C-alpha cells in the first residue's frame, strides 16, 4: 500500500479537507531496523512495552535507540492482561521528565492506547512499533481507556511514525492475528451503522472515507485461511488494512467509519468482564462475533413490514436495569445518556417516514450465513460466543450495550421496535 500518497491532504467532495498527521508508515520485513534513523532528531526517549512485547521487539527497539534512551518502562502483566487504567497511566507519567521529547511504544492495543493518551496529555509526540496485527487503532486519534471502570474513548492524536515489522507480526499469538481479522470483519457492521445514522439522523457521512474503509475490508475479508498459516503477505495486508482504517478514522475526525454497534457490544463484554472478573474474548474476536450476532438483528428488522408504536420509555425502570448491569459504572452510563437525550427523541416517526429507505440500508450487509462463513475460516463458531456469555448476558448486551456510547446504531432501532417491559 502506498501510504505516502494516502497520507497526503485531500480536498474532498464532502466539503472537508482530510488530513492525518502520521508522518511515516513502514510495514515490511525488518522494519524495526529503521527506528534509529526515524528517531534521530530526538535525544531523551521513553520506551514503553510490557513483559510480552519487550522480548519480541522491545530489545531490538532499545538497541536502535542506544544512548538516546532516557527511560525504559516494561509493564508486568502478571500472566493476565494489561488494562489502560489510571494506575497504568500514572506509571508512564512518572517516568516523563522535563527533558523527555519522545515516547516510543512497543506493543499493540493497550500499549498503543497508553502511549497515545499519555503523550497527548503530556504534549509529546510518540511512535508505535506494532507487535501484532490485532486492532485498527494504530493510526486513529482515539485512545480507548478504562477509567472509573468505564471504557471511555478520548480524542487524542496520532503517532508520528508507525512501524510494523512483518517478521514480528507474523509470529504474534494467533489469537491476536485472529482478533485483527475479526476487527476488520466488524467494518461490515460499522459502515452500515454509519449509513443508517446518516439516513435517520442526518449525520455527516463522507463517501470517500466510507469507500476507503470498504476497500480495506474487501482486501482482507477472504484471507482467513492464509492468516491461520501465518502467510507473510496476508499478515502484511491485514496490518496495512488495520492501519488504513485508522487513517480513515482520522480523515473522518472520529471513529465512526470503524466502530458501531459491534464495538458497543464488544465494550459491554470487556467492561463487565473487568468489573466482575469474568472471562471475555479479545477485542477483535468479540467485535466479529458481535457483528454476526447483530446481523441477525438486521435480518429480523428486514422482516418487519412497518414500525409499530414503541412502548413509552420508562426512565425509572431503565435506570434500575442500568445499575443492576453496570454496577459501579452505572452513574456514568446514566449521565451519558441523559446528556445525549437519545431516549427522548421521537424516532418512531422518523422510522415510519423512512422505512423503505431504512430497509434498503439494512439489506446492504452480508447475510448472517455469509458472516458465519468468514468467521469459520479462522475457526470461530457462533456457538462458542453463545456458550461463553450465555443467554442472559447476550440479551442484556442487545438491549443495553448501546448505552455505553453517545452514538446511534442499529441497536437503537432494534430497541425501539422490539423492547418491551
Q: Would you kindly provide a brief summary of this structure?
A:
With about 425 residues, the chain is an alpha/beta fold. The protein is built from 19 helices and ten strands. The model has no long low-confidence stretch (mean pLDDT about 95).
Describe this structure in words.
With 421 residues, the chain is an alpha/beta fold. Helix content is 54%, strand content 12%. The chain folds into two domains: 166 residues, Rossmann fold; 240 residues, Dehydroquinate synthase-like, alpha domain (Up-down Bundle), CATH 1.20.1090.10. It contains 19 helices and ten strands. Helix 3 links the parallel strand 4 and strand 5. The radius of gyration is 21 Å and the shape is globular. The mean pLDDT is 95.
Structure keywords:
10 strands, 54% helix, two-stranded antiparallel ribbon, single chain, 421 residues, 19 helices, globular, Dehydroquinate synthase-like, alpha domain
Secondary structure layout plus pairing:
Elements lengths: L2 H4 L3 E2 L5 E2 L5 E5 L6 H4 L6 E6 L2 H13 L3 E7 L10 H8 L8 E6 L1 H14 L3 E5 L11 E6 L2 E6 L5 E5 H4 L4 H12 L1 H15 L5 H14 L3 H5 L3 H21 L8 H16 L6 H20 L12 H12 L3 H11 L6 H16 L5 H9 L5 H19 L9 H9 L3
Parallel strand pairs: 3-10, 4-5, 4-6, 6-7, 7-10
Antiparallel strand pairs: 1-2, 8-9
| CATH architecture assignment name of the largest domain | Up-down Bundle
Low-confidence stretches: none
Cα(first) to Cα(last) distance is 51 Å
**Strand-pairing-aware structural class:** alpha/beta
The portion of residues forming beta strands comes to 5-15%
Number of discrete helical segments: 19
From the spread of the alpha carbons, the general shape counts as globular
Main sheet strand line-up:
3-10-7-6-4-5
What is the count of structural domains? 2
Q: Look at the structure and give the CATH class of the largest domain.
A: Mainly Alpha
Amino acid at each position: 500500500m502506498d501510504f505516502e500518497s494516502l497520507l497526503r491532504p485531500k480536498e474532498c467532495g464532502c466539503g472537508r479537507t482530510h488530513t492525518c498527521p502520521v508522518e511515516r508508515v513502514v510495514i515490511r520485513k525488518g522494519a524495526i531496523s529503521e527506528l534509529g534513523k526515524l528517531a534521530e532528531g530526538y535525544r531523551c526517549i521513553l520506551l514503553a512495552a510490557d513483559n510480552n512485547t519487550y522480548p519480541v521487539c522491545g530489545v531490538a527497539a532499545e538497541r536502535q535507540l542506544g544512548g538516546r534512551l532516557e527511560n525504559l518502562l516494561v509493564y508486568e502483566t502478571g500472566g493476565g492482561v494489561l488494562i489502560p487504567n489510571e494506575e497504568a497511566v500514572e506509571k508512564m507519567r512518572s517516568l516523563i521528565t522535563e527533558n523527555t521529547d519522545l515516547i516510543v511504544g512497543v506493543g499493540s492495543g493497550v500499549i498503543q492506547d497508553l502511549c497515545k493518551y499519555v503523550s497527548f496529555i503530556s504534549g509529546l509526540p510518540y511512535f508505535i512499533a506494532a507487535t501484532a496485527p490485532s486492532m485498527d487503532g494504530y493510526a486513529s486519534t482515539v485512545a480507548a481507556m478504562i477509567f472509573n471502570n468505564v471504557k471511555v474513548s478520548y480524542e487524542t492524536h496520532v503517532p508520528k511514525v508507525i512501524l510494523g515489522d512483518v517478521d514480528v507480526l507474523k509470529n504474534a499469538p494467533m489469537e491476536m492475528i485472529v482478533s485483527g481479522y475479526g476487527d476488520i470483519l466488524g467494518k461490515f457492521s460499522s459502515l452500515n451503522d454509519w449509513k443508517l445514522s446518516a439516513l435517520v439522523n442526518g449525520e455527516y457521512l463522507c463517501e470517500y472515507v466510507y469507500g476507503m474503509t470498504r476497500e480495506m475490508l474487501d482486501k482482507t475479508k477472504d484471507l482467513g485461511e492464509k492468516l491461520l498459516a501465518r502467510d507473510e503477505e496476508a499478515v502484511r495486508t491485514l496490518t496495512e488494512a488495520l492501519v488504513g482504517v485508522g487513517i480513515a478514522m482520522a480523515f473522518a475526525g472520529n471513529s465512526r467509519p470503524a466502530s458501531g454497534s459491534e464495538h458497543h457490544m464488544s465494550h459491554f463484554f470487556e467492561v463487565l468482564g473487568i468489573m466482575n472478573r469474568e472471562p471475555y474474548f479479545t477485542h477483535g474476536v468479540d467485535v466479529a462475533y458481535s457483528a454476526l450476532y447483530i446481523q441477525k438483528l438486521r435480518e429480523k428488522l428486514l422482516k418487519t413490514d412497518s414500525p409499530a408504536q414503541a412502548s413509552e420509555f420508562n426512565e425509572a425502570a431503565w435506570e434500575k436495569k442500568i445499575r443492576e448491569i453496570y454496577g459501579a459504572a452505572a452513574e456514568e452510563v446514566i449521565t451519558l445518556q441523559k446528556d445525549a437525550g437519545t431516549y427522548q427523541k421521537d424516532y418512531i416517526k422518523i422510522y415510519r417516514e423512512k422505512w423503505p429507505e431504512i430497509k434498503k440500508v439494512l439489506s446492504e450487509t452480508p447475510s448472517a450465513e455469509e458472516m458465519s462463513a468468514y468467521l469459520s475460516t479462522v475457526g470461530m463458531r457462533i456457538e462458542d460466543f453463545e456458550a461463553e456469555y450465555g443467554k442472559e448476558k447476550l440479551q442484556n448486551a442487545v438491549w443495553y450495550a448501546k448505552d455505553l456510547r453517545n452514538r446511534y446504531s442499529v441497536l437503537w432501532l432494534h430497541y425501539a421496535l422490539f423492547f418491551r417491559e
